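Two folds, back to back.
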Amino acid sequence: SGGPLNDQAARIFVTVVYANAFGFAITVVLTMGRVLINERVPRAMQGRVFAAHTVLSNLVAIVPVLLAGLIADGVGVEPVLVLAGLAALAAAAWSHARGTRVLPAEQGAG
């Protein structure tokens, strides 16, 4: 064929590139979330809030991982990846449509 990589190697390369880009993006998002918690939660409550956030995040993450595995076993990996991508786009569109909201702590600062 027309390159140094066979089809499988090319797919692996593209997957690694996307995984690195996603890893960077999610790190930025999670860091900003932690900064917001640091800024808005009283210091005495931060340990409890971080612990609750971690437990709930991990608990919520279990369901889609299990469902993705079950669906991939039934219909294949590619449809699951397409569905996951569409779900991510829908979540991004929903988040963007919500726009920015003024939180109660910011109302008096304007």
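---
second:
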Amino acid sequence: TATDDPTSLETDVTIPGASGSQSVTRRSVAAPYTVVSDDHELWDTSAGTVTVPVAQNTDGRRLFFKNESAGVVVVAPASGTIDGAATYSLLIADETVGITGDGTNWGRID
């Protein structure tokens, strides 16, 4: 379902282990960008850094990122790590990654 925001597209996705579906917003953004509370799926159209929230406030939250640029998109937590690293880089166009918070850090789910 399209919204009034031309940079967003609502998409129904099925969550494994859940009944039904969840409506999430896929948003095109330009780095640098800081993830906000209603972000779930971000398609970055420019090289740069996307900052994700502190993991302690996001236990179980899932975020998905896609590099739609010709450069490198860096996913960086405001604090903590992603699978033990300070950042995670999407090096090529169309590369994707999903992450989830465990209450302390972020981990890849792809």
